[in-house]
Amino acid sequence: MEDDISAARDHRQFLQELDDEGELLTITKEVDSDVELVAIVRRVYELEERALLFNNLKGCEMLDYFLSLGPRINEAKTKDPTSCQKLLTGSVKEHIIRGDDIDLTALPIPFLHEDDGGKVPVNREPAGPVIPKQDIGVIFDLWKEKVEDMPWALCFGVPSASAARMVCGMPIPKWTNEPEFISTLTNAPVNVKCETNDLWVPTNAEIVFEGIISIQETAPEGIRPNITDCSSSGRQREWRIFKVNVITY
Questions:
Q1: Which domain holds residue 198?
Q2: Residue 32 domain-assigned?
Q3: 159 close to 10: Cβ distance less than 8 angstroms
C-alpha cells in the first residue's frame, strides 16, 4: 500500500498531529511578546527541541501565537498538482472585520528584537496564480502599467504554513502552479474568493488580511535587525505602503 505523504489539511490538524507525535510543547505560563518570546524560540531552536504553542501571551487576548518546525514534505514532488476546488464561502469567513473596525495592534505579534521599530508580522504566504519568474516585483510592475494599486492577500495558519513556505522555494518544475502543488501536499484543494479582490485563499486558513499595495504612496522602512544581527537603523529606505481593508477569520 502506498504511504500517506500528505501534510496536515489545516493549521489545527497540524497542531494535533504534532501533539500526537510528542513534538508539541504547550506553554500556558504567561510570556511577554516583547523580546521574551523570541528568546525562548531561539533557545528551543539551538536545543533542537519540540515545536512551541504559546497560549498565554501578555496583553494578547485575541489569538494564540504559534511557531513550529514545519510538516513533512517527503515525496510529494513526484505527484501531479491537484486542481483547487473553489467555494463561495468557508470557515475563514466566519468573522469579517472591515475598514475603521480593523485594529492591527490587537494581534499577538511579538517584538522580536530590542532594536525593532515596531511589532511586524514576519510570515507571508502568496495568493494568486503562477506567472513567469514567480516574482512579486514583476506582478507589481504589471499593476503599475495599468495605473492601479496591486491587490494582495496575506494568510496566516494556512494548510500547512510550512508546506506553503517550502513550496515557494522548492525547485519544482517550471510553470507548476504553486497553490495546486500545495494542494497535493494537503489533499485539501479548497479555496475561497477574497472579499475585496479576485484572489483566492485557503478556505481553512486561520486569518486572512486583504488590501492593496499602493503604486504611489511610500513610507520609511521600519528599524529592524537582519539575519546577521546587525540593525538596519542607519539604512532606512522608502517602501510601498500596504493597506489592510478587510480581515477575515
A1: 72-248
A2: no
A3: yes
